[in-house]
User: Fold these one by one.
Assistant:
Number 1:
Amino acid sequence: MLKQISLWLALSAVLTGLANAADYAEFTTPGLAKGQITHDDIAPLIRYYQQQDWLEVTELGRSVEQRPVYLFKIGQGERKVLAWSQMHGDEPTATAAIFDLLAVLDAQQQAQADKDKDQDNSLTDWQQQITLYLIPMLNPDGAARNSRYNALGIDVNRDAVALQTPEGQMLMQAAKQIKPHYGFNLHDQNRYHGAGDNKKPATISLLAPAYNEAREINPSRHAAMQLISAVKPMLDKAIPQQLGRYDDEYSVRSFGDTFSKMGISTVLVEAGGNYNDPFRQQARQLNLKLYLNWLALISSGNYRDYDLSGYQAIPMNNSGGMKDLIISNISLPKADSSGVLAKVDLAFNAGGNGRGSVVLDEIGDASIYGAYHSVDASGLQYSAGKAYPLTKPLTLNTARYIQLLAEGYSHFSGKPDLLTNNSGLPVAINPPGVKSRWPQRRSSTTFLLSNDNKVQLAVVHGRVIRLADASLLDAFGGN
Ligand SMILES: [Zn+2]
């Protein structure tokens, strides 16, 4: 009963545009808070919804590797909305949010059915105005290999014109049959996008895609911009200075732009990074909130009260504006070691969704960037450190390793299998790029930072170890 009351409060809040994402925490579908979501993860959910009578679930078609792609149909209103997620297989956040939306609607339906036991019509308000079509995970083959592309290596979102992929054909066929008035084009963007000059990540970026090279605004694009203007206050409150506007350069082969050209009011949602949120749960909750708000706004038509100023005030995405780790104010030694040559910042990124190798991305003035993690190295001097030769078996515990680092060894040389690392800390064996007196772009991720010839911090493959307490700053767990 309590759950039902809180649901009604939450839903009435949505309809008045006041809902908080936290209101929906209880509808977070379990098992989807991870960096990669595959068809196997959603198959049991699809089976559950196939058994519910308040929506229709049909197989839209099959991927290259014959994985099924599903179309969910909810409601019976005249205004049609088509939303699709994970057309890029390695962009799963909105797929999770779509199942959260279904969980909200499922609970809403149960509550409504209890209320209307003796009445025929158990549709909720918006479902009389809107028919909502959802395609969760358009590219299950890409999802299976955690790849942007489909099984043929084709970017489905560059296939809107040529339609060479079954996945692209399915989406276009759905759009042509359904003839939606509104489209939600749901993606993830890399976590290095900042929101304008805010030095903060763009946790959500939005766009009303262009329909021609001139980026003109026709009535359908105007409506998409209004939908974005209408949700800006909610996002500004939820993620201050972390809302971005995606580049609107016309992309003739993309679905968003092509649907815009077809007269569908299309909004692009890009889920982005956030601090200490490797699986993008903040962006996931905000996606859900966006869908609920947009359904309410489309149902009521109230988005038409908004002008474009909100949309236009959203700062542009700042590509590369965020770094994984910035170590600032590092003193570099003079060539003759007689003193300090310069104080510089080092900015690091990690590839492979944060699980790949770390690279030194920039040396110098990193003050224009934001960072997920930052270390102030004022008073600390750079040195590459010495190699500890592996000539016989060596077992490292934490104390022994810290002792070696303190003695000026940053890495090991020789046969890797001679080293048994029980320290719980990263080690570098034969790392490239450690011989130089100064850090080198794209390579130096293993070095020492010292004051008065006392090593304070060791950076090993980009992981920062503080010698004082043997603690590790792992800045690269992000997604
Ligand atoms: Zn994408």
Note: Residues 88, 91, 157, 187 surround zinc ion (CB under 6 Å).
Number 2:
Amino acid sequence: MKKYPMYADDICTHTSDDYEKHLGAVITPLFQNSLFIQKKGESYGSGEFLYSRMSNPTVEVAEKKLAELEKGEKSLCFSSGMGAISSGILSSIGHGAHVICVRNVYGPTRSFLEVFCKRFGIETTFVPGLEVQDFEKAIRPNTKLIYLESPTTFLFWLQDIEKVCQLAKANNLLTMIDNTWATPLYQNPIEMGVDIVMHTASKYLGGHSDIVAGALISGEERMNKIQEEERAWLGNTIDPHTAWLMTRGMRTLPVRMEKHQQQGIAIAEYLENHPRVQQVFFPGLKSHPQQDLINKQLKGFSGLLSFIPAGTDEQILEFVDSLKWFQTGCSWGGFESLVIPIGFGMDAETEERLGVPHGLVRISVGLENLYTLLEDLDQALAKLPLAKKR
Ligand SMILES: Cc1ncc(COP(=O)(O)O)c(C=O)c1O
């Protein structure tokens, strides 16, 4: 058996196995304890583990797998994706700093920057991010961080990660990216120069819609600092049981992602060719306008995509309600197919500011049978008028 696994499937299945240490148990047991007592006579903190807010053997299994998958030195897990995002951002900035963030970013990330960080004198400029110049033009003397989400998870626009990182390095700025859509299997931003990679494990990493968790991956020095400062002080460490479930999810990540990808592509192509659909947004489509960047950055695709059906608001919302297998829900990346109407109930100015077109519907393609899902879409789309293709 190889000592250091090289392939993602080997990392997902076997990194951190330690049969000898754990009485031959085939998986690392669940250490559901807050405290690790110290040996009498030994100094405080001299043991391998001390207190589960700082570190825990069950949590370390998930962290080691993620660090290897993302080709980073060290990973830390958090109680949610937002826990990871807020800790990563706060570790990169100080009072009076300026952040540049991609406009289409996940809503609560935007609010964290726009509302929470603003209370502490931090300003953020949101840029479209399609051109590297968008970031360059926004740089100020007090800029500290460029925050990316590529692809974005409403319209699936990519940012040129390598070029943005070169710009950041030339200006002494840090870069952080939300890599959740691609998973560590299909995109490795550290190899492209990114300083901090973030995942919400509530999506594909967990994969079973039974946990809320998050993770950061970066260099050892930065991660040690976050472990001792942001994660320890904000107290947003992952719970061992959640980490145990996360590891269980990660063991099957490669096989699940293969099916999410296959079905995502098949459904995106079906929707693109459907006469009652105006436009489809998905990096796995040959019609996506950023083919060069897709080939450069992505090694595969997941199953989250969006589209604009034909019809009035009422007709589109009725279409969403008439889907039988796609349950309506805001999350994604689980075993189950989901649908969410996104581009509704906003005024034109908000749609423009957030970069969300009117009538946008997002689906997370799950692991059900492909023909079951296609039939479901077929019966629901049949009620809509014919589309003017965009
Ligand atoms: C793209 C993206 N990033 C981050 C998050 C936040 O993750 P969590 O819900 O685990 O805090 C989400 C949640 O939906 C998301 O969709």
Note: The pocket of pyridoxal-5'-phosphate is lined by residues 80-82, 106, 153, 178, 180, 200, 202, 212, 214, 331 (CB under 6 Å).
Number 3:
Amino acid sequence: MRKFFISGLLLIFTLNLACGTNVSKVTPEVSSGEKLYRSKCRTCHTLIEPKKFKDEEWKTFVEKYGSRVHLSVEEKEKILKYLVENN
Ligand code: HEC
């Protein structure tokens, strides 16, 4: 299941590159969500373990707190992907 999810992410990333967007971000999609989470979500509190919440809960929290720091839809999606992949 996890493997399937990761290859899906890789595919999305490859397509992204092919379209010429995000060329500057050469890091794989898999870790970019984690990076974003680590950089954007700990300005107000310590990072919360992905395992602490279920998919649905993370969705709500990423929306709620992501909007506070004006994350783009794309950034929120990446962070959410990282969280639900690791919970
Ligand atoms: C602008 C400051 C701020 C940022 C940035 C922020 N948070 Fe929070 N977060 C808070 C505060 C304040 C609380 C405590 C809320 C409370 O106790 O009522 C909190 C609590 C939480 C909780 C615990 C559940 C809850 O609502 O009490 C989760 C999960 C969470 N944040 C996720 C995130 C994620 C994911 C991000 C990155 C997208 C993020 N936070 C970024 C301020 C922030």
Note: The longest helix spans residues 2-18.
Number 4:
Amino acid sequence: MDSSEIRDKWDARHAEAEGLGSQARVLADNLHLLPTAGKALDLACGRGANAILLAEAGLEVDAWDQSSVAIQRLSQAAEEAKLGINCSVRDVVSQPPAADSYDVIVVAHFLDRSLSGPISQALKTGGLLYYQTFTRARVSEAGPSNPAMRLADNELLHMFSALHPRIYREELLLGDTSQGWRDLAMLVAQKQLISQ
Ligand SMILES: C[S@@+](CC[C@H](N)C(=O)[O-])C[C@H]1O[C@@H](n2cnc3c(N)ncnc32)[C@H](O)[C@@H]1O
């Protein structure tokens, strides 16, 4: 599929889907780590459940996705909720965030390995990355079927080795796979303060 076919596929999915999508647990379970003010980016935001959470937490939020349908739906939801989210149709691979521009970046269910450097650089000193996406080890059919679009064992830690991990969770197929948090890895990592 070329890039316009991928965009069309996502436009169709976002047009059919209900609501804003689900909040990523990496963010919803760790809201207490957020700063009380500052700039946040929901990168490849989809219909923007995480952007809404960030705005409700008092942050100034940018939300970017290549799908105009997703961005249109998020803009409408933000307006209805009276939340000032800066929503943009943007290809995040050809136009990644600028260096030193965000206090918080959230990436959920999206993987483009070429962005690990630009994302790390886009955080301000002390800034936080919240990242959650699918792993190759899986117990369900959720997520992409192409293994290249899923994380290898510990891959998020390697991709963001320039940052300091604060929370990491990946359970693979260990133990009783009917329990726990499966199919996904989550990372909260910080761009270290220079004096620490
Ligand atoms: C599985 S959805 C995840 C959406 C949202 N982050 C969530 O967790 O609900 C993946 C999103 O990535 C977007 N996407 C894929 N490639 C992109 C690119 N190059 N630039 C911007 N968005 C992209 C798609 O349009 C889609 O909305």
Note: The chain has a mean pLDDT of 97.
